[in-house]
Write a structure and sequence with these properties.
single chain, 419 residues, alpha/beta, D-Maltodextrin-Binding Protein, domain 2, 2 domains, globular
Amino acid sequence: MKGKLRLVSMTLLCLLVFSSMGFAQTTITYWTHTHPPMVDLNYELIKEFEALNPDIKVEYTVIPNNHFFAKVLTSMGTGTGPDVMNMSSSQIPAYLESGVVAPVMPEAFGFTSQGELEDAWLSGAFDGAKYGDVIYGIPSEFNITSLVMNKAHMEAAGLDPTKAPKTWDEVLEYGEKLTVRRGNQIQRRGFDFFYVPNFYWVDYGMLLGQLGGSYLNAVQTEAVVNNGVGVEALKFWYDLVYDKKIAGPQLSAMDSTNIMTDYIQETVSMSLAFPWSIGLLEETPVWQDSVIVPLPQMNPDKPVSLAWAYYWMVNKDTEHAEAAWKFVDFLASHPERWLNDVSFVQPRKGWSDSVEAQGFPFLDVWLNDMNYAWFGDRTAQWSEISSIVRMAIERSIMNGVDPQVSLDQAKQEIDAIFK
């Protein structure tokens, strides 16, 4: 309480001093998607930043996940976009291609050059925000995909929680044993994917990458998503719903605000998990029965774990670039709080050696799966392509259309973009 009073007093004093000296206050806008722990910490850090920088005011806007990418991209094209945004690596190529974001300002972070700045982070940390050799964003989180299991459910089903499934065939075996039915009604699924529009590419892309596939050909001139491996990836999911009958969208809460809702409510026993999932699970009853293990593989000899990152980026047309990057520097200067409060991994060198990281749940699993990170196809047309793939997935998974037929249609629609 005393700390908060001191913060308020310092803020008021600074504002009085600046007001008496005739300084004008700069206002910068900041937009993010919805993720409750992240939003809470953003509000805290904004208050602290404004107290230390009374000449700068931050207007923070939180946009629902299902609308975030489209709203930000549209706003940037019309000159109404934010000064600072937090953007996914899957969407960034469109921003880089259209030139609407500014290169990082190294001096705002205490470096004399981009090379010095890049050297302070792990190799590959900036790959999701590079255009040519220029860096356009600072990593706010680095995500890797693993598997979370409810060990109490496993024990009740006669499965050993210490023997996690290593392949997707084993996931099917475990899933059938874990599924609980009452008559013809499924009460609990053994395993299922996420049925949230902005996560379909995670579900499907993970399987596609493990099979060595891609959405586009090597020169990104046409779609190849309907080839053998593309169809195989979607058919695995299709069979889970229509052949094995142990999964399906009709059984999911489809909560885009908290995609772990099904697992938290124990209507599914195994689910995909990410470092930030910890922040959603730790305060729930199911956490005491949870164990996170390496991601199951299509081919254990060639492991792949889907990765993506979010970056703080600055609008090229901002009138307050120095203030914007100063704010980003402040946000990025608290990696221990992002890890503790939000479970966001910020991949600066030495991050895993910190006291906070050593106490982070299942650190060894995250580090293991980071060795097999795959960012997938990176293209400026990703927003349109991911929308087409989402519709292809929904045709198959929700309406029962054969995966080959659905992906053939997706290829025609994607190829039309390039033509």
